[in-house]
Write a structure and sequence with these properties.
The protein is an all-alpha fold. Helices cover 59% and strands 0% of the residues. The model has no long low-confidence stretch (mean pLDDT 90).
């Protein structure tokens, strides 16, 4: 996955760090913050995280209880707008199958 090459991970660390700082304030995990952020976008957006581990399923479910304030959402949006995510989401052959 191009987004997870060492170079891309290093470049994208700023976004991970931002989620980590908010997660620490909210006594939650970065994954919970990411899911809570998605849930806060529109009422019809439903994240579908995948996992094979029961403890991760529990973690994901608890994201519903994370309350992001307007200030939290602003901080995430502001920081994300200043970060250019590096690396394609999928390898080229898979990207062609996404219908873009």
């Amino acid at each position: 996955m191009p987004r997870f090459t060492p170079e891309a991970r290093k470049a994208n660390q700023a976004l991970v760090d931002l989620l980590g700082s908010i997660a620490e304030r909210k006594n939650s995990t970065q994954a919970q913050i990411a899911i809570a952020w998605l849930l806060a976008q529109k009422p019809w957006i439903v994240p579908i995280p995948g996992t094979t581990k029961l403890h991760r399923l529990d973690e994901n479910i608890k994201a519903v209880s994370v309350e992001l304030t307007p200030a939290d959402l602003h901080d995430i949006d502001d920081a994300a707008s200043q970060i250019t995510v590096q690396g394609a989401r999928y390898p080229e052959k898979l990207e062609q199958m996404t219908g873009r």
